[in-house]
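Hey, I was hoping to borrow your eyes for a little while. I've been staring at a protein lately and its backbone has me curious. You're getting the sequence in one-letter code plus the fold written as tokens. Would you mind checking whether the tokens look sensible for this chain? Here's the protein in full, and shout if anything looks odd to you:
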Amino acid sequence: MEEEFIELINQYQGILQKICNIYFYQHPFREDYYQEILIRLWKVKQESTVSTWLYRVTLNTAIDLVRKESVQPVYKELSTQEYAIHDSHPEENTATDKKEQLYQAINRLSEIEKAIIILYLESYEYKEIAAVIGISESNVGVKINRIKKQLIKQLNNGRQ
């Protein structure tokens, strides 16, 4: 059973890291929280498909940790000079910069909104997202549309 668990974690490493990056972006205890997620995954019996179970446990653990520890995202405001330097060569913005901007925008969402958008970006169907989050399928659609609008607004405001 231990070997199966290790194999499962290795297979889904990217998902686990992505959730940690979203919920604990630049947090000093990020690796500790990652370990806490692994412990919970080990303890919680799998009752549904592997991916649904993994997301449900991982996202719920991250949300619990955020609430319990009152973890707030760390934002670094750019000075006028840094902003001018960064903005003066927009063609030089790399995919990494855009990914970083997206992570920062997602980080500003509520815990539930983060969970929904992570699943959406992983191409989960509304039905699967509803099962993981515990809301109705129609509510998932409404929330995704609202989240998209928020993210677009945040990303566009960063470019102006």
Summary: Confidence is low (pLDDT under 50) at residues 82-89. The chain has nine helices and no strands. The radius of gyration is 17 Å.
